[in-house]
Design a protein that fits this description.
This protein has about 210 residues and is an alpha/beta fold. The protein is built from six helices and 15 strands. The strands form four sheets. Strands 1, 4, 5, 6, 7, 8, 10 and 12 form an eight-stranded mixed β-sheet that branches. A three-stranded parallel β-sheet has the order 9-11-13.
Amino acid sequence: MPNVFATTHPLILHKLSRLRDKNTEPKKFRELVREIAALLAYEATADLAVTARELETPLAKMTGYELKEKIGLVPILRAGLGMVEGIWELMPVAEVWHIGLYRDEHTLKPVEYYNKLPVEPTVSVCLILDPMLATGGSAIATADVLKRWGVKKIKFVGLIGAPEGIAAMQKAHPDIPIHLAAIDDHLNERAYIVPGLGDAGDRQFGTG
């Protein structure tokens, strides 16, 4: 699938298997989400632009580099919150903007309930963060919001994707790369990813 990147990195595969295990407790689950998110962000940001800058080491002057583009992290509430800290450790100057969406249990469509984005965009690159790309509804709605805000470069970073959600996201936003730790088999009748890992929000916050 074009513009879809499912990692084969051994560290991520190992940590994802522990994350899927139903016996993994919330504290460990949160740790694994942070760690996997950071590793995925490392891969997803390989094409960020840099600019040269002069600096001086203890031994000599040289030309180094710094990030040229201002980055925004956009976790989809609430499950996406668990991915922020791991990525923030890699990019401490990144801005974090929250968009609140929940899935209507009857229609399975996303409903927006929180959005505090300023009038004008303050970043040039946004990473949409959500552990599960299931139906794709929340990711599509978030991308819609960010494009209306004026962001030109957007990437989706998630842990697990279902073919249905990936296809929906690609159809709605074919320009947005999708970075995942795994692509699973299908959605069940409740729109949960199978085999998946259950409800990522409940497992992070101990509310299942």
